[in-house]
Amino acid sequence: MSESSTLVSSAAGRYATALFELASEAGALTETERDMIALGEALEVSDDLRALIGSPVYTRDEQGRAMASVAEAMGLSGLVRNVVGLMGTKRRLFVLDEVIETFAKLMAEHRGEVTADVTSARTLSDTQRAALSDRLKAAIGRDVKLNLTVDESIIGGLVVKVGSKMIDTSIRSRLASLQNAMKEVG
Predict the structure, then answer these.
(1) How far is it, in rounded angstroms, from Cα 156 to Cα 132?
(2) Which residues constitute the domain of residue 70?
(3) What is the domain-level CATH number for residue 152?
């Protein structure tokens, strides 16, 4: 099964796909992407907003009115407002973060990008990021968007995941291999 068909198999995938197709037909992909990024950032920073969309305590009407107010205050497009409103009336706001994530994946696929999850022991410099992105693009043959995280426990090196492929050049991994080899000898 391809990644695109996997993306749309869930409720979140269906909402994201519908939003993507409507935005594409309206020529509003860039605006819709900007709105979805803003909505995702609002969810990230607001405990109240996360509680609103995730709690079954609020009625459909309360969630709908609150989300309409949030969407208006944020200046979101009518298209995004309608989809969020529909999700509220169907009691599906709890998957909003997944809808945002899936929409971002659909946009990346539309642009021919692939996302690489990169874990490093320290924050990568701009030069290191550019070099890594260029090497991955050469290996994969597509533009690569880096999703960077820092994990000091890997000690050094990188762990790179692109789709189902993983490259682990971390020192932690090398030490674990050496430790296993030593156990086999002794």
Answers:
(1) 15
(2) 3-109
(3) 3.40.30
The Cα–Cα gap between 158 and 149 comes to 10
In this prediction the pTM is 0.70
On whether both 95 and 23 belong to a single domain, the answer is yes
- Say which amino acid occupies 140: I
Q: In a structure prediction context, what are the per-residue pLDDT tens digits for the chain, which is 186 residues long? A: 445 445 556 889 999 999 999 999 999 999 999 999 999 999 999 999 999 998 889 888 888 888 989 999 999 999 999 999 889 888 899 999 999 999 998 998 899 888 899 999 999 999 999 999 999 999 888 889 899 999 999 999 899 999 888 988 889 888 888 888 888 876
Nearest to 90 by CA among 63, 50, 57: 63
149 strand-pairing partners? 119
